[in-house]
Every structure is written in C-alpha cells, then in structure tokens.
Amino acid sequence: MPCTTLLVGKNATVDGSTMMARNEDSPSGQFTAKKFIVVRPEDQPRHYKSVISQVEIDLPDNPLGYTAMPNAQATEGIWGEAGINAANVAMTETETITSNPRVLGADPLVPGGIGEEDLLTLVLPYIRSAREGVLRLGSLLEQYGTYEMNGIGFQDVNEIWWLESIGGHHWIAKRVPDDEAVVMPNQQGIDFLDLADALDQGKDNLCSRDLAEFIEDNHLDLTLAEDREGPVAEDTAFDCRSAFGSHDDADHTYNTPRAWYMLRCLIPFSIQWEGPEVPFHPEDDDLPWSVEPDRKVTVEDVKYILSSHYQGTPYDPYGHKGDGSLRGKYRPIGINRTNFLALTQLRPDLPENRRAVEWIAEGCNVFNAFVPFYTNVDKTPDYLAVTGEEPDSNQFYWANRLIGALADAHFGACANLIERYQNKVAARAHALLKEGDRGETGENPSLYLEARNEKMAAMAKEETQKVLGQVLYAASNGMKNGFARSDA
Question: CA-CA distance, 258 to 293, in Å (whole number)?
Fold first, then answer.
C-alpha cells in the first residue's frame, strides 16, 4: 500500500503522550472503504488463513481485545491496519517500502509468506509492549517469510519502535528517540542502525540474529574501505539505507519529496528552507529519518502534516506560487486515494482504562476531519463500524468521500468551508474528550467509554452532514451549465 507515516516520541509531544500516525492509501485507481471496529477475544481466530498468500498459522489461545481498521468488504482478507489492544499497546501496519535487487536476490520474497493483509491480526492481540511487538513480528518473518517489503510501527505509553523487513526473512528495528519525530514515505527509511547494540543488548536497536553474516556474505555493505573501522557486527552507525534501500529515480517524485515536506513542517525555524544555501531538497536521498522538532508536536500538527499537499511551495496542486510549471510534480501526502488516517495516542497522565485514544479521519485528508475515540471498549459507534459497499452519507467513510470529490473540483469555493469544518470538529472533539477524561466511569468503564464514543460520533456526524450540504451547494453553483435571466 502507498502510505505515509509519522512517529513522535513522548518528549516531543505537547502532552507527553506517544503518537503514532499513518495514512493508508489505496493503489492507483482504487478506493478501499474502511471501518473502525473492536475485535473481542472470543472473535479472534485461533487458526488463521490468509486470503492472498494462503499461509496458515495457529495462534495462541489468550488474545487480548483490540481495535482495528479493516477493509469494509473482506474480499482480500482483513487488512487490520491500525489499532490499540486492551494492554494499551498500539500497532500500525504497514508502510510499503522499497529495497534493491541485491537484497532481494540474496533473500527473495516469499509468495506464500505473510503480508499487510495479515500482520495486525497475527501480532497485536498477543503483545504487552512495543518491544514485544517487534520481537513477535520478527520471529514470524523469520519463520514464514514475507511477500512484500514493509515498515511497521509499535507503540506503548513509553516507547515507539519501527521495524522494517529486509528481503524475505530479515528485518531491522529501531526505537524512536523520545525527543524526536520520524518521517516515513514509501521507502526504506532507517538511515543508520547501531548493529553492535542490535546484536547484543538490543537497547535501542534490534535485528535478525544473522544480519551481520547476511550483510557480509552478500556484499551489502557500501561503506568505503577507508571508512570501515572494525567488522560490520561492531558498527554503531551502519548505513542501512544505502545497504538495504532503493535509489531509483521514481523515489525522487514519489517518496523523498514527502519526507522533505514533513521535515519542513517539523523544523521550520532551525533549517533554512528558501534560498541558495538550503541544506535539504525534495529529491535528496540522505534526508534524516528522525529529527528533534522545533517545538512540541500537537494532534493538529500530525493531521496537517499527513494531509499536506506542499502548501507554500510551487509544488502545491491547489496553489498559486510560481508560474505553475512545478504544480503536481511530486506525489502529495494528502492524496485522493487515502482510505483513512489513524493516530494512536497513549496519554501517560490518564488512568489506564482511558489512556488510549485513536484519532480517525476517513477519505482524502485534505478535506476530512480528525475525531478521537476511546479504545478500551467492546464496540464502536455504527457511524464508523458499519460501512457498506454503496455510497451512504450516513456512514463516516462515504460522507467524507463525497465531500472530498465535491470540494476538490471546486477548491476555491470550498476551501474556507472545509477549514471551518476541520476547526469546528477539532474544537468540539477536544472539549468532548476533556469531558470524558474527567467523568466518573462507574462500575463499568467500558460502557462509560462507549457512551462517550457515541457522543463523539454524533458530533462528527452533525458537523460532517452540515459541511456536506455546504459543499454540495457551492459545487452546484459552480456547475458549467448554470444560467439565470440576470445573466442575459
């Protein structure tokens, strides 16, 4: 899946929470309807069979309940994508990433292995920390292999880890620094890995146990001889992006510009972004994987970044900067084919039973709004849990798809309407969330949180229906066959 990920460590966020967010985008020409559900322990399969690869795996008998964002119609399997389990551990899968022929020749992909369709279902119900998630998935990759290259995030209240598959069976993982944010488009992202740590204590880095031998046996290390100090296994800053990643021309229009713009949003003041001395450019292959933001990151920052379309640059397809020759040159983050955006937020200052919140937007992020829901529940509101095959404005996904298609074609007339909608929903969502955080849960916290989620969904539906009507009116007035007697 073409996607974009943003990870923010606890010391870099405004409230000390860990934040992990990702857009799930459909392939070209496809639009995949999604729904937001809870999978209860009794509904979790004990024997799993993939639709795509047909791989079969026996699962443990002690799953935790968890939220998920599966495909609304399961013709290609589950595709759980993003969720938080009952232990307040989150997972997002997957960021489809790139590699190179040397890696894929040394460790070929496995047609009958596991992939994005499967991973949330196979991992999230069985982990109680982000590190456990890395180790469980790493073990599954080594045992079953994978048919695609993927990046996967794991999160608890203290840590975020990012895992990347390397070929069919190998993998690397790195802990997100607490005071930094990670930017990830669809390419192998981790720039430097402390292999000495990964192969020994595994404090902030983890990997396949045979990774050093794999690198050496297949001549994957691109470090110049004069720069190589000691064996690969003792390297504290191994250049894994050069060794494992892609360096294709296509990356310079599809991937690296997205990372460049995310960095531009996160460090607008400490880096010069205009003029001849600019250190980072949209097509640079050496953009940093993580940076310390210039200021604390908010939920609204995450939404803006993952909805962005190169605002303020000549590349904005909706913009007016420059002579127009660069508009649409690069693939935006906020693209028409986004299925949903999920931000899993784990807040350390809240009781465990309401610590976890999942912010959700569906459809094209340029035109949708972000809504938070508690995840320690047994069911989710029908407005998000029920998504049919046919367009229905009474369902969150379809309402947002309709708004996006109408507003995009009439951007000038609708931009202010969308901005007001997004701000209104954000303000009301924060107010409802604060009210829910402070309330008394009573003897059944799950029922209390479900009731709070219903209030949140009712607010989202009210505001979404309202802006749908406004956008429809603006678009109708802009129809090419409009005519009035006063026009004559």
Answer: 17
Q: Is the pTM of this model over 0.90?
A: yes
* Bridge partner list, 359: 343, 372
Give whole-number Cα distances, 157 to 19, 119, 430, in Å: 9, 21, 20
Q: Name, in order, each residue with C-beta under 8 angstroms of 133's C-beta and a sequence gap of 6 or more.
A: 89, 91, 123, 124, 127, 154, 161
Alpha-carbon span 430 to 365, nearest angstrom: 19
Report the alpha-carbon distance of residue 304 to residue 182 in Å, rounded.
Answer: 15
* Number of C-beta neighbours around residue 428 at 10 A: 17
Q: Please say whether the beta carbons of 272 and 279 come within 8 A.
A: yes
Pick from 380, 417, 408: nearest CA to 395: 380
Distances (CA, A) of 465 to 83, 402, 425, 457: 26, 11, 12, 12
Cα distances (Å, whole numbers) of residue 182 to 14, 18, 128, 249: 16, 12, 23, 23
Contacts of 73 (CB under 8 A, 6+ apart): 33, 389
Query: 125 in helix, strand or coil?
Result: helix
CA 323/CA 317 separation, integer angstroms = 12
468 in helix, strand or coil?
A: helix
- pLDDT values of the chain reduced to their tens digit, one per residue, 488 residues: 689 999 999 999 999 999 999 999 999 999 999 999 999 999 999 999 999 999 999 999 999 999 999 999 999 999 999 999 999 999 999 999 999 999 999 999 999 999 999 999 999 999 999 999 999 999 999 999 999 999 999 999 999 999 999 999 999 999 999 999 999 999 999 999 999 999 999 999 999 999 999 999 999 999 999 999 999 999 999 999 999 999 899 999 999 999 999 999 999 999 999 888 899 999 999 999 999 999 999 999 999 999 999 999 999 999 999 999 999 999 999 999 999 999 999 999 999 999 999 999 999 999 999 999 999 999 999 999 999 999 999 999 999 999 999 999 999 999 999 999 999 999 999 999 999 999 999 999 999 999 999 999 999 999 999 999 999 999 999 999 998 877 66
Residue 354, Cβ density class (10 Å: 0-12 exposed, 13-18 middle, ≥19 buried): buried
Tokens of 186: 């669809």
Structure tokens given for 68: 């998920």
* Contact indicator for 400, 421 with CB cutoff of 8 Å: no
- Catalytic residue numbers, as ranges: 3
- Alpha-helix residue ranges (DSSP H) falling in 211-250: 211-217, 240-244
Q: What span, in angstroms and rounded, lies between the C-alpha atoms of 39 and 34?
A: 15
